[in-house]
Amino acid sequence: MIYIVHGENLSKSRALILNQQKKLMVRYKQEFSIEDTTPSDLTSKIRSTDIFGEPQFFVVNISGAGRTNLEEYISVINQTPAYTTLVILSEKKLTASNIFIKNAAAMKAQVLENEATVQGTSFDFVDAVMRKDRINSYKLMHRELNRDKDPFELFALLMYGLRSMAQVKFESPSSSGMNPYVRSKQKTLVGKYTEEGVKNMFKAFYELDLKTKTGEINPEVMLTLAVEKVLNSK
């Protein structure tokens, strides 16, 4: 059997390959990169037999193929014996124009695409802060900073979240033009804040921004103080 496993979620691809190996009760698999293997080498491998009579299980990683001429490899793969399992692995998503995808039907290969795991966005951080969820606020703030997000960018997004909530809180005419989903989400937040509390947050954000730009505090301290101001607001 021939499999083409591709996509951004490499760990999921690896798990799928391991699961297939277990299903076939194959103790050993051989993995090699296509750039280090000639068509002749590949022919020898897939036509070989195990000395103990076990089925052969090969993984060919094509991630580094680059501009390699792959036509000969396709011809070899087409001759894979029925008792051999051959997995063509790509650590990236293959497009419809990729030679392996185009020849999948001819090779009778099963194509399995793994999508990247969604890891969330910076708006998750903003939502956690505006909900006054202290634990997730700091967890997500550190996640974004570890992704090299600029503290000024996160501060600006937090200001956007505050402004959106205030528009609904004060029933601003501009709130009627909001995306219905955004407006609905803000309505669930307004009860957590008093009008005076919202005004105080705007004042505090302005002062933090000014102190950072004049060098009185550093950007990460600014961001932390802004988060605390929202979490502790009335």
Automatic annotation (TrEMBL):
Keywords attached to this entry: DNA replication, DNA-directed DNA polymerase, Nucleotidyltransferase, Transferase
A GO cellular-component term linked to this record: DNA polymerase III complex
Signal sequence region: none
UniProt-listed Enzyme Commission number(s): 2.7.7.7
Listed GO biological process terms: DNA-templated DNA replication
Transcription regulation found in the keyword field: no
Top EC group: transferase
Superkingdom of the organism of origin: Bacteria
Listed InterPro entries: DNA_pol3_clamp-load_cplx_C (IPR008921), DNA_pol3_delta-like_C (IPR048466), DNA_polIII_delta (IPR005790)
Domain DNA polymerase III delta subunit-like C-terminal, first and last residues per copy: 122-227
A molecular-function term among this protein's GO annotations: DNA-directed DNA polymerase activity
Recorded catalytic activity of this chain's protein: DNA(n) + a 2'-deoxyribonucleoside 5'-triphosphate = DNA(n+1) + diphosphate
Family, similarity comment: Belongs to the DNA polymerase HolA subunit family.
Protein's name in the database: DNA-directed DNA polymerase
UniProt lineage: Bacteria, Katanobacteria
